[in-house]
Amino acid sequence: MGEEHWCPTGNELFQLGDVVLIRRQVLDVLEISCVACGGHGVAERSWVPADVAPVLGDGNVDVGDVVRLLRLAVGLDTADADGLVVSDVAPTVAQGDLSVVTGDGRIDVSDVVTTLRAAVGLVRLAWPERVLVLRLPEGASAMAFSLSARRWPAWAKLESVTCDACAREGGSLDVADGRFGITGVVDAAPWLAGGPVATLRYRSPQPVDVSTLDLASEVIGPDLDTLPVEVSLDAR
Ligand SMILES: [Ca+2]
Ligand SMILES: [Ca+2]
Which of the ligands is closest to the CA of residue 106? Predict the structure, then answer.
């Protein structure tokens, strides 16, 4: 067991969540370190839908992606398994101003047409929105909680956390390379826990497997003591 590394980003507010992090540093369970800030210089795949050119993508969908999609559709080019996931953008379902990618396991002319429409700005492609719910055990008298995932997959883009049980501005989401941390300060503390406290939303081509996330959590009681309970994370 080594110290956990933490990359501070800040939100220009001093909240109880900051106190929780300071306390964890005092107890030597947390170390502020650039290790957690990511940026190791390794080229990673872009997981933007239809961004297949160059091979790992460049974050944009343009005519180069249309050409490569066409070559994939007719068998002139091949892609690895991840490339096929990014290529399979049709069919889509309209949600507001987004065209949500559902895919059908095949790369054909409909994927090329959808990519062309995205390249000229006629549609905005997005992966389906997925939801995870944070729960605290029944009966825990909680004041604050934190949850971190040390192996969040690159293909799942975290969007927001809504902490329904938190005091105003009491929830925060910090996302870094391959990990995230959630800190929440519950309303009307100490708050008798039981059931969902927060909702995490992300977009991805497939649901994440929670058992692979390498989760760590801490629940703080009324005396700023660590309670022997854990935050759970479940698909809704
Ligand atoms: Ca591209
Ligand atoms: Ca398709």
Answer: 2
